[in-house]
Amino acid sequence: MLIIEPSFIVREGVKTLFSQMGLAYRVDEVETLRDNLPRLIEKFNPQLLLVNQEQLFRQWAGNRSSAGFSGLIIAGICYGEMASHHGAHVDFSLNIHSPKPVIMQQMQEMLQKSGLAGTANESESISERETEVLRFVALGLTNNEISEKLYISVHTVMTHRKNITRKLGIKTVSGLTVYAILNKIVEAGELKGSSRE
Amino acid sequence: MLIHQDMKMAEVIHLNHHLLHVINRFGIQLGYGEKTVSQLCQAHDIPLSFFLEIVNTFHDPSYFPIENMLQFKASLLINYLHQTHRYYLDFRIPEIANYIKRLSDDKAFSEDIKGLLQHFFNQYTSELTTHINKEEQRVYPYVLELERFLSSEHSDQALIQRLKAYSIHEYEEDHDDVEAKLFDLKNILIKYIPEPTDSRILNLILHELFELERDLNNHAHIEDLILVPIVDKMEQAFHARTVSS
Ligand SMILES: [Fe+2]
Ligand SMILES: [Fe+2]
User: Is the same domain home to B85 and B199?
Assistant: First the structure.
């Protein structure tokens, strides 16, 4: 989960309410949208994004699906009623003046829709395809090389890699390599030489 | 609760013992007696407000008073950051390396796994060392020289040319990579190693890694959010002065 909101007191409030529902996931916080949104998404790779709605509309004119994060659930944090056309880019609008039961209900829905609540355990193991990609990553192949080997686009390779990192909680190539060896996806002997990062 | 100048230093430690190492970096050692924060700072010739801001940002990561901290002299920050580097390289990293060595006598793991962990940790250490060396050898000396230039009247042409040749913006913020490896190492130990017959040494290693991570995050924050903007302002002053001369 990533929270982008300039007000400290609002960020703390959002976190506190989420924690009352059993907070068992990582929360990253950013004060402003000074950096561009796609970069922040890439860096933190959240499943759920809560972002100050006014900043979102002011700073970011991009298109969700073309920006490559159509799978992400976005909730706007707004300080009052929002004009309805503003709601187009977000899945939820969280009005900070709403009463607690309304906010809690919305948060529950966000957690479910983004996959943060409920079925977390089953979805965390990596798929067969992801295992294949992971194997090539561990062997030191580039995204281009992997795309050729598996007859899939580079974009798809990158999506697989993002999902692998999210599911395993491992970000670096050398970390993934260690994981692959521990799980016998590759053998240490295959890695000799240049493949180590 | 924030730490304030009239608290006894002993109370500060009771409130948050993670601050022990941070306080050492200012040259203040144990045996505080009944002395307060402000008394100890005075005795050690440390600017009180600087001490308080550093200690409080460490104590409460959500307290990060950028505005207050932009007032400080770059050399003051660099001195603190330098002490922090020494602490990582001379103390914390060797400490973890020792634990990892102790693992090698431990029958709870296979040789392969020990080798993998050792290798991964060595990679991490060399990345961290490279990062720190770059700052110590290139970035910090540049900032200190810039500060000396701005605080004096002289206009040594060679020095001006040297300062013009570099900018703090060349100092790419590559803290992400160093952070990512540490993050991975923690998860590998917590989630993915085959169940050992005894976890005690691993627990100690994990404890050290969490401490190191907390410290490094604070350090990187100070560099990115405080030091860089301060130097940015200094560079503007430098260019204003050298253009008119
Ligand atoms: Fe540093
Ligand atoms: Fe650094």
Answer: yes
Amino acid identity at B101: K
Domain-by-domain residue ranges, chain A?
2-114, 122-190
Minimal Cβ distance to A172: which of B180, B192, B194: B180
pLDDT digit string (tens) for A133-148? Answer: 999 999 999 999 999 9
Residue pLDDT, tens place only, A42-59 = 888 888 999 998 888 877
Residue B154 CA to residue B176 CA, distance in Å, equals 39
| CB atoms closer than 10 angstroms to residue B175 | 16
- Facing A181 at nearest CB: one of B116, B185, B191: B116
Contacts of B123 in chain A (CB under 8 A): 174, 197
Statement to judge: residues B50 and B78 lie in one domain: no
For tokens 């290139």, what's the residue? B138
Which of B67, B127, B192 is the mutation pick for testing A, counting most A CBs within 10 A?
B192
What residue numbers bound the domain in which B50 lies? 9-63
Could you tell me the pTM of the whole model?
0.78
